[in-house]
Specification:
The protein is of the alpha+beta class. It has three helices and four strands; from the N terminus they run ββαββαα.
Length: about 120
């Protein structure tokens, strides 16, 4: 499995590539549906919820998750591309239109800040 990320002017793009069994073309349009399992995974465990949950999270944040399978000619495997827009709002901050790295700097040492609370600091 390969994980990579890069910046684009309007988004952060994350790519997840694997060399698994891939997803058959006839199943790809349903792969983000609740409880859907591809036709070639009968011998593998799972409930068919992981990708549907990932899609719901991306939709809630106005992002995208896309599938390409196969992503290399002559090979099995999948490539998922996740695009997180820079317009992502910070929870609880109604004044900041976007999430920027500078916004997060300095918050980690402030009591009750989202990052401090997440680490159990108060």
């Amino acid at each position: 499995m390969t994980l990579s990320a890069h910046d684009e002017p309007d988004a952060l793009v994350i790519e997840v590539l694997d060399e698994g069994i891939g997803i058959p073309p006839e199943d790809q349009e349903h792969i983000f549906d609740d409880f859907f399992r591809a036709s070639n995974v009968t011998e593998y465990g799972g409930a068919g919820l992981g990708l549907s949950i990932a899609k719901k999270i991306m939709d809630a944040h106005e992002g995208k998750i896309e599938l390409e399978s196969p992503y290399q000619s002559g090979k099995d495997g999948c490539k998922f591309t996740i695009t997180i827009p820079r317009t992502l709002r910070i929870p609880g901050d109604h004044t900041s239109p976007t999430l920027e790295a500078e916004d997060l700097q300095g918050q980690s040492n402030q009591p009750n800040s989202p990052s401090a609370v997440g680490r159990g600091e108060e």
